[in-house]
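Justification of resources, computational component.

The compute hours requested in this renewal are based largely on the per-chain cost of generating structure records like the one below. Each record pairs the submitted sequence with a full structure-token output. That output is archived, and it is also reused by downstream analysis tasks.
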Amino acid sequence: MKHNDLKAMILFYLYNELDENKKSMLEQHIDSCNECKLELESYKKLFADVSNDNETQLDPKLLMESRLELRGILRAQRNKLLDSNKISNPLYYFLSKPIGLAFSGAAVLILGLFLGYEIFKNSNVENATDNSVLNNNLKISNINFIDSEASDGQVEFTFDAVKPGYFKGNVNDANLQKILTQAVLNEQNPGTRLNSLNVINAVNSKSFDDEIKKTLIIVSKYDENPGVRLEALKSLNIIPFDNEIKSTLIYVLLNDTSSGIRIEAINNLVEAAKKGFNLSANDLSLLRDKVQSDQNNYVKFQVKNIIKEY
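The structure output for this chain reads:
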């Protein structure tokens, strides 16, 4: 068997998917081939690194924030492609057709399954069998079998357990605010996210903490629903203006596809400028570019007014 054929079998060897003859043949070849030996060691190191990463406990909130940020970045990049008329690009033309969409969707699905398998195949899940977990108040969903073979009397699976809760209290209560920020970030229903933002708007601004501010910034940039993004942007007006909020407004102005949201962002920047908040040279450079590219006349007019002040 040729060298390249044997080299291609290394990954299958590590997954124990070779028969005994091929396994023996590959092991003999590796003993005499430095290139294949290094290839085998590099795969082992990669698998060891992935296994070590699995032991790290991910913060669910941080994970959700990262997903939202990635979603926003992808949306911004997609808009830039559309604005620059990439239809003439053969790859873009192919992917924009139904067959191209199906192909790209299948590719993403396969990649997702592979990464999910690599990340979670060795994960240790807490064995939740006591009555405090398995009770009538819990809703069990998303059962995924790890080992469904019951011939040995044992099975293994993971599941999600959701317990209903109830809260009544003052809008300035810290616990209430924590629940609302989680709802704004994680709730799938955009109506619920909007209602949560409306309650946050009723909170005394003096009781706002960095978590609420950070949540509003993330949602203003990356939430997939334009109504939710707009409401979060309005909520930022309650918080004293600073560099973080300024950067958020400029990001929204440069990347959001909704003219209404861009108008809200530029209006907030104008108000901040009137109150004496200064923009940096880099900020002004970005705004000058926006004057050339934005399709909304009101936004262009207001951006020009800000630039004239410097």
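The longest strand covers residues 139-147. Residues 119-133 have pLDDT under 50 and may be disordered.
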